[in-house]
Amino acid sequence: AAHDVSPPPIVPPTHSAPKPSSALQVTPVREPTLVRYPIPSNEAPQTLVATAAGGAEDFVALTTLSLKLDRCLNRVTTLENELGITKKVLGGAILKLVTRVKRL
After folding, report:
1. Which residues lie within the region annotated Disordered (predicted)?
2. Is residue 78 part of a domain?
3. DSSP letter string over 24-67?
4. Interacting residues of 9 by C-beta distance below 8 A, sequence separation 6+
């Protein structure tokens, strides 16, 4: 290959405790791997009908997932609201108990 990239150097671990340093730490950076597009595929090219059918299936799956996401978000909102109410109720009860204990 025209652009062979060597891996970063292996740095042996030190056995002493790490010391705080004000010096800038330098991290080795690898060169990006050269990729040629388009990447060849072993699959036969899809026909227009197969692509349209797959698109329809993708749309149905996306719609289904969107509905599930909406239900989950609504449930999270409901649970958050219930938690807020519970915290207020319990906070009030704890305050009453603390007040009663102090009176004893």
Report:
1. 1-25
2. yes
3. PP----PPPPP--SSPP-SSPPPPHHHHHHHHHHHHHHHHHHHH
4. 28
Provide the residue range defining the domain that includes 67: 47-104
| Whole-number pLDDT of residue 76 | 98
CA torsion through residues 87, 88, 93, 96, sign:
positive
Q: Which two tokens stand for residue 60?
A: 């149905």
Statement: the pTM of the whole predicted model exceeds 0.70: no
- Asked whether residue 83 is assigned to any structural domain, the reply reads yes
Digit-coded pLDDT (tens) for 17-74: 444 444 444 555 556 555 555 555 566 555 555 555 667 788 889 999 999 999 999 9
Q: CB 23: neighbour CB atoms within 10 A?
A: 5
Q: Are 30 and 8 in contact (CB under 8 A)?
A: yes
